[in-house]
Amino acid sequence: MLTTNKGLFTTCTLNCSRPITTTTHTTPRSPSSSSSSPSRRTLTFRRNKKPTTATVRATMKNYQEQDRLKDVKEFDDSKIGVKGLIDSGITTIPPFFVHPPETLSDLKPNGGGTRPESDDIIPTIDLAGVRDSADRRKSIVEQVSGACRKFGFFQVVNHGIPLGVLDNTVAAIKGFHELPVEVKSRWYRREMGTGVSFLSNVDLFQSKAASWRDTLQMTLGPKMPEMDQIPEVCRDALVDWNQHSKELGEVLMELLCEGLGVNPGKLKELTFLDARTMAAHYYPYCPQPDLTVGIKSHTDPGVLTVLLQNQVGGLQVKCGDGWVDVKPVPGAIVINIGDILQILSNDEYVSNEHRVLANGSQEARVSIAIFFNPLKRDSSFGPFPELVSPEKPARYRQFEYTDYIKRFFTKELDGKSLTNFYRV
Ligand SMILES: O=C(O)CCC(=O)C(=O)O
Ligand SMILES: [Fe+2]
């Protein structure tokens, strides 16, 4: 059974056969009241008091693997997500969300590592005029290429997508995640058979600790799911966003190719525009943001990611030993390079590690990531021959995308293990 508010979960959420409603969770127990029930698996960190490594270790020591698996399964079976947990009134997080001390100590500003340089700011690139003049395009390509070599991340403004569309998309995803649990849980599943799934933590059963976010996943390309499979609250907005983000993806792929000095149509020819997936995340308020994360440090597997975020913040990119914020810029869209482009570019571009801090603010953070993957999965991938020379031999061996993506989905979301696996 889930921990901190034992009574809460045993009485209504996890063992009930009737639909779960958030309104049944209005009288949470305070952590201290759990002293009347066994406290072996109860977290005792006090709110706003930063836990030391020793406290985390001591508290988690008795949290056995079998308890953890049971709690994780019970949480998944409840279909309430972390939004449902927080709506139930909890004031401490269940122990399976608590990350190990090494992760937690790295959450502190600069993680104890060296401070990022003052010019380590993720650039915002103005795309106005990208199709208008050769000089303007050259300047944009230089900025894009510079950002991809240094950070693997940048933001774009004047991308041609109306601001109303951005706002509408964020509002629609927020609307989905804020539906009553009994409505939203109809989409709760881990398989993507229908092309749509709502779930908490895509790697819940692979990872050592869960993260404080829920996600609506959807296949976008080569075709969208049947319309009646898409939640009505976000259906029209997602049809619209799919079109706009695909067009932006196409422009970006050209710029990325030009920045590498290869044919601008090369990524499109490799069908990277045609198999897109969406992960629309919701990071609700977390009562103990020092003990968990929103999304663990990882790299994205695809060629590039187009990410729309609201103004709450929390996304960070690895920079040296430290982390740099990707500060929300009104009207901007975040772009990052994925592992396969690092490989194709023979390490010219970097697929950088990034993470999202658990959200300590009352306002929920919303982000919508679109991943661009190849449709032709049986093709062989490796560094572009144009970028391989005697001075710079291929840094990766050739592999099939099917093997690559299988590897991605059977491991937990983590750092650079995918690129490292194919590295020669
Ligand atoms: O929520 C975010 O800003 C990042 C999400 C992300 O990194 C991902 O879905 O891969
Ligand atoms: Fe990511």
What does the model show?
- The chain has helices spanning 6-13, 53-61, 65-78, 81-87, 101-105, 134-150, 163-177, 181-184, 232-260, 266-269, 339-344, 401-409, 417-422, and strands spanning 124-126, 153-157, 196-199, 214-219, 275-283, 293-298, 304-309, 315-319, 322-325, 333-337, 354-357, 365-373, 380-381, 399-400.
- It is α+β, with helices and mostly antiparallel strands.
- It has two domains: 4-105, no CATH class; 124-422, Jelly Rolls (Sandwich), CATH 2.60.120.
- The strands form three sheets. The protein has an eight-stranded mixed sheet. The chain has a four-stranded antiparallel sheet with strand order 6-11-8-9, with no helix packed on it.
- Strand 1 (124-126), helix 6 and strand 2 (153-157) form a beta-alpha-beta unit.
- Helix 6 packs across helix 9 (232-260) and helix 7 crosses helix 9 (232-260).
- It is globular, with a radius of gyration of 22 Å.
- 2-oxoglutaric acid binds next to strand 5, strand 7, strand 11 and strand 12.
- Residues 279, 281, 295, 300, 307, 309, 315, 354, 356, 367, 369 line the site of 2-oxoglutaric acid (AKG).
List descriptors.
single chain; 424 residues; alpha+beta; Jelly Rolls; 2 domains; 8-stranded mixed beta sheet; 4-stranded antiparallel beta sheet; 13 helices; 31% helix; binds 2-oxoglutaric acid; binds fe (ii) ion
Main sheet? Answer: 8 strands, mixed
Q: Which cofactor or ligand species appear? A: 2-oxoglutaric acid, fe (ii) ion
What is the percent of helical residues?
Answer: 25-40%
The CATH architecture of the largest domain comes to Sandwich
Q: What is the N-to-C order of secondary-structure elements (H for helix, E for strand)?
A: HHHHHEHEHHEEHHEEEEEEHEEEEHH
Helix-strand category: alpha+beta
Overall morphology: globular
> Could you tell me how far the N terminus lies from the C terminus, measured between alpha carbons in angstroms?
46 Å
CATH topology name of the largest domain, in short, is Jelly Rolls
Low-confidence region ranges: 1-48
* CATH class category of the largest domain: Mainly Beta
β-strand percent reads: 15-25%
Mean pLDDT: 87
